[in-house]
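Blinded run. Sample ID left blank on purpose so nobody reads anything into the name before looking at the predicted structure. Input follows.
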Amino acid sequence: MKKVFFMAFLLIFLTLGVSHSFAEQNTDAKPWNKYPDNSEKNFMDVDVFYDSLDKNLYKEYQNAELNIREKVFFKDINKVFEKADKHGSSRISGDGYHPQRQVYVFVTVSKDGKHMTTAVFDAEKQRLISASKG
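Blinded prediction complete.
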């Protein structure tokens, strides 16, 4: 009787262990399945995209001290944000985005330099990835 319980326990243990290892392998295989590399694709100019943008999502300050509009790879977003560090620090990271995925990055700083607003949009899907107001 002990052998039967032992064999059943061993069988269950091995089954759970194998299924768990397959699940880990599948998630590690393509970490950016949802947002793959799109570096070879062409997207609209950053200024054209800004002009078509819903101003409820992002709008530059009138008479801004600083406005930044750039289309870059996802891996370079923080390099763009560094340009405005004297007005406040803003950084982004994200799982699921390929480093070579194209994004639009916007930064605007109010005339008095006290408020900074940022926004990052996916160039292909034209969806907001990240935004901050300060």
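Unblinding after everyone has recorded impressions. The chain is about 30% helix and 20% strand.
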